[in-house]
Amino acid sequence: MKRYEALADDIARSIHAGLLKPGERLPSVRTASAARKLSPSTVFQAYYLLEARGLVESRPRSGYYVAQAAARLPPEPEAASRPDGESRDVDVSALVFEVLESAMTHDVVPLGSAFPSPLLFPLERVGRAVASAAVHLDPWSTVDDLTPGNTELRRQIALRYLIDGMDVPADEIVITNGALEALNLCLSAVTRPGDAVLVESPCFYATLQSLERNGLRAIEVPTHPRTGVDLDAMKAAIARHAPRACWLMPTFQNPLGSTMPDERKRDLVALLARHEIPLIEDDVYAELHHGAGRVLPAKAFDRDGQVMHCSSFSKSLAPGYRIGWVAAGRRAQAVARRKLTTTLNTNVPAQIGLARYLERGSFDRHLRRLRRTLAAQQEQYIALVARSFPRGTRVTRPAGGYFLWIELPPGGDALLLQRQAGSLGISIAPGPMFSASRGFGHCLRLNCGHPLEPRIDSALATLGRIVAQQLR
Amino acid sequence: MKRYEALADDIARSIHAGLLKPGERLPSVRTASAARKLSPSTVFQAYYLLEARGLVESRPRSGYYVAQAAARLPPEPEAASRPDGESRDVDVSALVFEVLESAMTHDVVPLGSAFPSPLLFPLERVGRAVASAAVHLDPWSTVDDLTPGNTELRRQIALRYLIDGMDVPADEIVITNGALEALNLCLSAVTRPGDAVLVESPCFYATLQSLERNGLRAIEVPTHPRTGVDLDAMKAAIARHAPRACWLMPTFQNPLGSTMPDERKRDLVALLARHEIPLIEDDVYAELHHGAGRVLPAKAFDRDGQVMHCSSFSKSLAPGYRIGWVAAGRRAQAVARRKLTTTLNTNVPAQIGLARYLERGSFDRHLRRLRRTLAAQQEQYIALVARSFPRGTRVTRPAGGYFLWIELPPGGDALLLQRQAGSLGISIAPGPMFSASRGFGHCLRLNCGHPLEPRIDSALATLGRIVAQQLR
Q1: B176 has which bridge partners?
Q2: Is residue A80 part of a domain?
Q3: B61 and B176 together in one domain
Q4: Average pLDDT over residues A167-179
Q5: Could you say which DSSP state residue A289 is in?
Q6: Are residues A65 and A210 located together in one domain of the fold?
């Protein structure tokens, strides 16, 4: 991340937190450049970026001011969730499919979608790398690259861990059909039907569907929309339910966007290690930080090989190619064996092609562009939600990913909103999809991974109108 | 299949069955051509082919005679298996992995491998089709081709069913990561832990591993090496165990090579339908018949949508691409939903690329060549087994696929053979891998999907010597 981006990010946070108020003047470029030990042009770039995001405005011969529009930005949700502490069988899959399948056609406005716009990815460049791998495929690679997967791709992934200061040997990495397969392999490697599993509240609906399919019980742990799971509550849940696994998203959590601070991640890993509970870490949005630099996963604090770190290229580089992986710690062989008996192997030319793409080093250039785009889109969506939704609506400010979590004011009903909006060709992801106990009836997840266009502006306005009617 | 191939096949069967004896003269070309209503050149081609396979020899100015070598060909196994009729928990996975992992390096002679030589496939041509799909990928296809899969590929697969006279709508087809994922999705869609499942005896070890992983009980049904499962025994097993599913390979079964006659397939489907037991049909070798023409799957006799027909392109066209499918009958939606929560989707460019390859119509040309090659290799391997293995050894004569099932004479021990041969760099697949009750200790499966080369000749000789020592 560039310096000017870091500075802009700092200032944006101060505005969102109310430390800098609308109409207030930003420090002059000269002052800021001296105080921050940055060149004046870096400060200028930061101010331009903030202006582009609608957070500040320039007044000729006067300087930069916090935009009035920033005043209308909705507050963040403040309270952690409060699930009831029970463990329970899961029965959400039908609801989840009902919502997803209603939104599967192309002409529905994809605010409920789980995918960012595919136009944000260098699909032609990735395609050329895969094309070359396919045309020049060594026939024996179809046998040699059997699970755990292509050696060069695993080496490239291990190198990326190394850049983050993590020592994850290639031997520990198993290539999978996307992160979802990785997560499912891990879950089935460490649980038996009837076991209880710790999850966030709210959590990604596919987690709940996996638990449901495997006959597992969910223990929903209170989760704060900024800082993630509550470790005291987790301790209590461990004592009470003796869970066999923990499946979390400590970074840019889906749907909250929350990120556990490093220290809390360290404590989480230590707590689970003490109880010999494996951590299945879903880290698919890791690369999509909005500017504050790489966030370390919980895996970085693992000393016992208990963390199974799952990720993929589907959200960062190559949607549709289904190349994910797990760094499975001490369970690498167990996971590889499960993969051999469920899907056997992962598309070989795609593995080789991605390995070559990574070797060439253009991944990071693409990521820088993608992060800027997603950060800017998030600001724009928040501004539009501010304009469209009734007062009292709260919206998260994730530091990465492309989801906003919205708490409606009392009286708001997200399931009803989903049905009403659905009939108008607008999808949303209502809160109860993300909870085994069907909580979060007044919450929804909005996808801000699609560049704004008139139909999205207008869909957000429509959503706001429907909510306002609900509150009457 | 060409006419001369059909004729050669008929004659080969007569020789194997002992109807034509070594030294006996074949009908003259003129006689055969009149009797069969074939042109003389067709008969000549058939005789040349038989000569190439070592089954007949020509004597100048005299005609064609059954080769003396044919006399030394080992007999076929004659008896159906006799499992004990119990249902049991499965615990073979560790043995299977021990055997498979010992053979995973390239320099081991792959007689125990499950894959044919990758050199038998038009990988460059397939690669070009996939390359073009990857380079010109419509970004939205990464969203639109989500499970159940790419529309054009599903249409091409439906067309192939249609050519076989089967009405399988594209809507019923779900694209999967190879047939193994299809089979596993079907199994998990119709069973709960503790359920009993009907399987063949012996059966494909991955079937047993799936049962083991899902906490299911296996009921092994007696299976004849030529004609497949015994339906009377199946009736008894249904009455006794009330199984919830049946997982079979009615065509070119792995490991036996057995094929149920059409009439028996029809009765099987009717029997299962009467008891509302879904049939999971593994048909991955369907395209690899050795000349007698397409064999209809059990699915062709399905009137109730109870048959879930699983296949793939991995054994017929594109190993390493992991493109399979299931025509799941009335359970198409249930299977698609399971896929959405386990691996989400299948590599999109590979789906589009294979669809384009199929459109172009060169698949059947490739298949004709592949079938001839596999048929010839099978004859050559049988001849080598005949030369190398002790008298009393029995060998199957599958009409398709690339596996031989070998019964050793009393005293032969396939597990011991596997360890002894393994230490010499030769892999085999010992019988107990294929049985929940660890039967078939005197049997092994040989892969004849690799063109003969000196190290394979010599490996077969080594195997024969070790077996001979065991018998002493």
Answers
A1: B324
A2: no
A3: no
A4: 97
A5: B
A6: no
DSSP for A39-103, written as a single string: -HHHHHHHHHHHHHTTSEEEETTTEEEE-GGGGGSPPPP-SPP---S-EEE---HHHHHHHHHHT
Greatest CA separation found in chain A? Answer: 69
Structural domain contains residue A78: no
Shared domain for B111 and B131, answered yes or no, is no
What residues of chain A lie within 8 A of the CB of B100, using their CB? Answer: 340
Please state the φ and ψ torsions of residue B298, each to the nearest 5 degrees. Answer: -55, -35
Q: Tally C-beta pairs within 8 A across A and B.
A: 187
Nearest to B180 among A134, A135, A344 (CB): A344
Distance of CA B328 to the CA centre of its chain: 20
Same domain, B50 and B145: no
Q: Which of A144, A145, A181 is closest, CB to CB, to B342?
A: A181
Reduced to 3 states, what is the DSSP secondary structure of residue B289?
strand
Number of structural domains, chain B? 3
Q: Which of B346, B363, B380 is the last residue of a domain?
A: B363
Same domain, A199 and A344: yes
Residue pair B355/B156 in contact by the 8 Å Cβ criterion: yes
> B143 and B102, same structural domain?
no
The tokens describing B253, both together, are 């079964």
For residue B126, being part of any structural domain is answered with: yes
Mark whether A302 and A418 lie in a shared domain: no
Residues B398 and B373: their CA atoms lie apart, in Å, by: 14
Q: Is residue B82 part of a domain?
A: no
Phi then psi dihedrals of residue B38, to 5 deg: -125, 160
* Residue numbers of the domain that contains A385: 87-119+365-470
pLDDT of A53 over the 80 cut: no
Determine what percent of chain B is predicted with pLDDT higher than 90.
82
- Span B156-210, pLDDT tens digits: 999 999 999 999 999 999 999 999 999 999 999 999 999 999 999 999 999 999 9
Closest by CA to B219, choosing from B189, B205, B204, B240, is B240
Give the residue-averaged pLDDT of A311-318: 98
Query: Are residue B315 and residue B261 in the same domain, yes or no?
Result: yes
Question: Does the distance separating the beta carbons of B321 and A347 come in below 8 Å?
Answer: yes
Helices (H), A119-230: 123-135, 141-144, 151-163, 178-190, 205-213
3-state secondary structure of B7: helix
Secondary structure class of B248 (helix, strand, coil): strand
Q: Which of B96, B142, B247 to mutate to test the interface with A (most CBs of A within 10 A)?
A: B142
CATH, residue A380: 3.90.1150.10
A299, A333, A363 - which closes a domain: A363
Tokens of B467: 């077996």
Q: Do A123 and B140 touch (CB under 8 A)?
A: no
Do residues A384 and A452 touch, judged by C-beta distance below 8 A? Answer: yes
Please spell the DSSP secondary structure of B218-241, one letter per residue: EEEEEEETTTEE-HHHHHHHHHHH
